[in-house]
Design goal:
With about 300 residues, the chain is of the alpha/beta class. Helices cover about 35% and strands about 20% of the residues.
Length: about 300
């Protein structure tokens, strides 16, 4: 993590709705170092995906901006690869051909056919999917398909890897295996990663820093937590590590004590509060106008469709 190479400065994001402007983000300032793994966490509707879409170049902020290596980000580019919760593989193409799509797009003029083939297989081997190169997405499991999605992103040699809840739809065991694989790959390649997650344990295990978002509308960065745990990390060993427990508790405290209830809706003194969960669910969102939530979700969905297209 030698230098800061991605910066969000004074970022505000508003969407037009029939009821007037909906302010999704307000005054987001964030610097990310090269090789740093940063997780964004917060309740549903706090603008995490909006931040990711701005970095990806899929959305233009209303005010402020994003700079990567001294260049303003205003359009999508191969130096910012996105991995969504849905792997978005083309079902009629093989595993190899899905990765080949990205490699052809980025390296068609700079690599020979032989070099491209070797590079595709190298990235499939990174995620232990070389053996399934000739299979189609319908012939492999969801976890395997997500591995291919990660391989496709890595094959673009991105400067920043953007991950929007990449393991959220997977079962616990598959998710754990992919988390371990991602840690190994990130350490080997020294990749800069920005990941959205609702899973507190996942955030603490994988991250160098956790960015905790306040509730929307007008969401902003509430707190930042540096995860100063040695690498490589082992989930079993960390389970009883005092520093791991402290970090986990700090995130839970922010989510369930500082952000669960807007100030005007705080329960009366002595009223019981629900027990914290390690996963932030959609029901944790504070009451807001349905139109506000729908506006944010609609714009994020449209942005993802443009990315895949």
């Amino acid at each position: 993590m030698s230098k800061s190479h991605l910066e969000l400065t004074g970022v505000n994001m508003s969407f037009d709705t029939p009821d007037g402007p909906f302010v999704a983000l307000e005054n987001i300032d964030l610097k990310i170092a090269e090789g740093e793994f940063v997780s964004l966490i917060g309740h549903s509707g706090c603008g995490k995906s909006t931040v990711l879409n701005i970095v990806a170049g899929l959305l233009q902020s209303t005010r402020g901006g994003c700079v990567l290596d001294g260049h303003e980000v205003n359009t999508p580019g191969p130096e910012r690869a996105v991995v969504f919760q849905n792997h978005a593989l083309m079902p009629w193409l093989t595993v190899y051909e899905n990765v080949q799509l990205a490699v052809q797009q980025v390296f068609r003029k700079t690599m020979s056919r032989k070099e491209r083939r070797e590079w595709i297989m190298h990235n499939l081997e990174l995620v232990n999917m070389g053996h399934a190169a000739n299979k189609r997405p319908g012939e492999i499991s969801g976890g395997m398909a997500q591995r291919v999605g990660i391989a496709r992103a890595l094959a673009m040699k991105p400067s920043v890897l953007l991950m929007d809840e990449p393991f959220g739809a997977l079962d616990a065991l598959t998710r754990a295996h992919l988390q371990d694989a991602l840690m190994d790959i990130q350490q080997d390649l020294n990749s800069t990663v920005i990941m959205i997650t609702h899973d507190v344990d996942e955030a603490v295990l994988l991250s160098d820093r956790i960015i905790m978002m306040t509730n929307g509308p007008a969401a902003t960065i509430g707190e930042e937590l540096v995860i100063d745990l040695p690498r490589p990390r082992n989930r079993v060993t960390l389970a009883n590590n005092p520093d791991y427990v402290r970090c986990r508790q700090a995130v839970l405290s922010f989510l369930y004590e500082k952000q669960t209830f807007p100030s005007k809706d705080k329960p009366a003194t002595g009223a019981p509060s629900p027990a914290p969960s390690a996963t932030v669910s959609d029901t944790d969102q504070p009451p807001t106008k349905a139109a506000d939530t729908a506006a944010t979700s609609s714009h994020d969905a449209q942005a993802r469709e443009r990315a895949i297209a």
